[in-house]
Write a structure and sequence with these properties.
34% of the residues lie in helices and 41% in strands. By secondary structure, it is an alpha+beta fold. The chain has one domain: Ribosomal protein S6/Translation elongation factor EF1B (Alpha-Beta Plaits, 2-Layer Sandwich), CATH 3.30.70. Strands 2-3-1-4 form a four-stranded antiparallel β-sheet, with helices on one face. Strand 2 and strand 3 form a beta hairpin. 16% of the residues are buried.
Length: 116
């Protein structure tokens, strides 16, 4: 099996709880089909780089996956027919990282108190 980073952008009009349940459904589907989920991150409601169908924001989520290629193709097919998913991107990586992504590290850095 290969390692992947899978980023999903979902519609902004759904709640973060609905995004979490959507990610849980994806996790359950992948585990039933022989995959393994490494780290899952919810990056929050963020601005898009460009509007998609006049929508300027989206819920960003990252999944680190260890799945067979056929299962990944089925997951992407399901994303294409799901109305909640605006965009998705899958990147093949050499190894899965247990550390927080750069997006979460950046958020932590931005919320720290300034030194006096």
């Amino acid at each position: 099996m290969a390692f992947y980073e899978h980023i999903i952008i979902t519609r902004p009009d759904i709640s973060p709880a609905q995004v979490e349940s959507f990610i849980e459904q994806i996790t359950q589907f992948l585990q039933e089909n022989g995959g393994r989920i490494g780290n899952t991150e919810y990056w929050g409601l963020r601005n898009l780089a460009y509007p998609i169908n006049k929508v300027r924001k989206g819920h960003y989520s990252l999944l680190n996956l260890d799945v067979p290629a056929g299962t990944l193709q089925e997951l992407e097919r399901r994303h294409r027919i799901n109305d909640e998913v605006m965009r998705y991107m899958t990147i093949k990586v050499d190894a899965l990282s247990d550390e927080p992504s750069a997006m979460l590290s950046r958020r932590d850095r931005d919320t720290r108190k300034p030194r006096n």
